[in-house]
Amino acid sequence: MSQLQGEIISADAPLSNLGNYEEAYNNFKWEDVEKEFSWYQTGLINMAYEAIDRHVDLGKGGKIALRYSDASRDEAYTFQQMKDLSNQFTNVLRKHGISKGDRVFVFMPRSPELYVSMFGAIKAGAVVGPLFEAFMETAVKDRLEDSGAVAIVTTPALLGRVKIDELPLLKKIFLVGKDLEPIEGIIDYHAVMEQSSPEAEIEWVNREDGLILHYTSGSTGKPKGVYHVHNAMIQHYYTGKVVLDLKEDDVYWCTADPGWVTGTSYGMFAPWLLGVTNVIRGGRFSPSDWYNTIQSNKITVWYSAPTAFRMLMGAGQDVVEEYDLSSLRHVLSVGEPLNPEVVRWGLKVYGQRIHDTWWMTETGGQLICNYPSMPLKPGSMGKPVPGIQAAIIDDNGKVLPPHRMGNLAIRTPWPSMMRLIWNNAPKYEEYFRIPGWYISGDTAYMDEDGYFWFQGRIDDVINSSGERIGPFEVESKLLEHPAVAEAGVIGKPDPMRGEIIKAFISLMDGYAPSEELKAEIAKFVKEGLSAHAAPREIEFKDKLPKTRSGKIMRRVLKAWELNLPVGDLSTIED
Ligand code: 6R9
């Protein structure tokens, strides 16, 4: 049992997969990890084979791979069933002309069909693009258009948000639903699956061939397509082993949706590469439902996010005591800074250390983490994963000594590093502007023991409940509203969500500020883009601060909001 000693919580699991951190770090070689894949012997590479079929070939076909439940379904699928079903979908895609390199999107709530479709597409050599079900038509269209998607798997409820007529490249629409009426040009998923054989040839690929395209937000421009390749499986597997600490008999639950990179790298790839039973719970967050999920599935390893932990903390200890959470042995967090207060609470109430992990869509996998075998400092993101060299560097690439704040940077390359920003080479190059380093956009410092401490973002990217929101995308949507003349969007600190979206708006002539108008504008963004992109606060201003080139100065808006000095205004318009 770990205990709190000052601000260090002692290690609680010396027998974890990683073992002694320093020893593991110093003796690490990626090649040793590569040897654990079947392709190291066979030369035949495909992520889906390693995650699903391989376990069948090793005699574990009868083991439960997926336990799925939501308000209306409760189902379990073995590795054999996942193999057969994904093969069926591979055959369906091939029959419809989809082949290696094609972009196939999935736009639907969590369901077994979502995971089957993704693995089916990967087996066909396609690049999968997962989309949050919360996206509205503009968000969906931007991503399908940019990626040149040729196929999408979606549901009747979401189909209306796919602007088929405006997407000439989108040729195949697979609809997942019960008792569908035939619709012209739309393929009934279940009907074609029924006719499809569970035997399929996997498309063997190269390590550097495309696997997944995750759209994520930056501070300027539309969302960027972050492109990952099959080689990423090396990082997913290794971190699944030493960070998630997964073992044969674990029952694992990652609460993230596959629309977010955590929901793919660690919601499907890592657990299945390790052949572990993966629990997926659909539906919305509620403390009692979540605790019940842990209790009824006897979850042993649980990966979630600070906002969720803060909400669970807000729900109080009484709810916790109604459930038996004694199956838990390892708890992890990602997405935002994990408050020391939450870590202390987890220790007190769950009897568990919550292990923070740091990484990004672009990094494809965990890079800086806390491990069961390492003392934990509440508030710190931990230390680099073996095989990863992290440092704090200044804008010229000079490595800074401990306790100096600067750019959090990673030595290139590592197995799951993004390989492209789709259609946007200049954006990609920005991350690597200092030779030999990947610049994360986060600021941090390292302490004398080599622990990293998150400080903030360099750009204006907003992190609300762990979701990255680009201010530009929200501003663009706001400008489409007839009343809006100018809009500037910032993240405003919030105790529960980390940040909330606040919009400063100047109105067109003829419109008067009112609470009704605020509500209408917020609704406009919610319905056009997505609920999580809608501003929770709106403030009307006669004029917004702009540079002479016409860019809204978000840092000035932020300074106004926080009552801070506005800093250098030499580029302001007037
Ligand atoms: C996996 C994921 C990445 C950004 C990242 C940082 C923030 C992630 C964090 C964290 C503090 C942590 N972030 N983990 N901040 N502590 N442990 O979250 O990917 O959605 O691309 O977000 O999230 O700012 O740069 P993504």
UniProtKB/TrEMBL annotation:
EC code(s) of this entry: 6.2.1.1
UniProt domain AMP-dependent synthetase/ligase: residue ranges: 60-419
GO molecular function: ligase activity
Domain called AMP-binding enzyme C-terminal: residue spans: 473-551
Enzyme category, top tier: ligase
Keyword Kinase recorded: no
PROSITE patterns per record: AMP_BINDING
Keyword set, alphabetical order: Acetylation, ATP-binding, Ligase, Nucleotide-binding
PANTHER family: ACETYL-COENZYME A SYNTHETASE, ACETYL-COENZYME A SYNTHETASE 1
NCBIfam families named among the record's database cross-references: PRK04319.1
Name of the featured protein: acetate--CoA ligase
Species this protein is from: Paenibacillus segetis
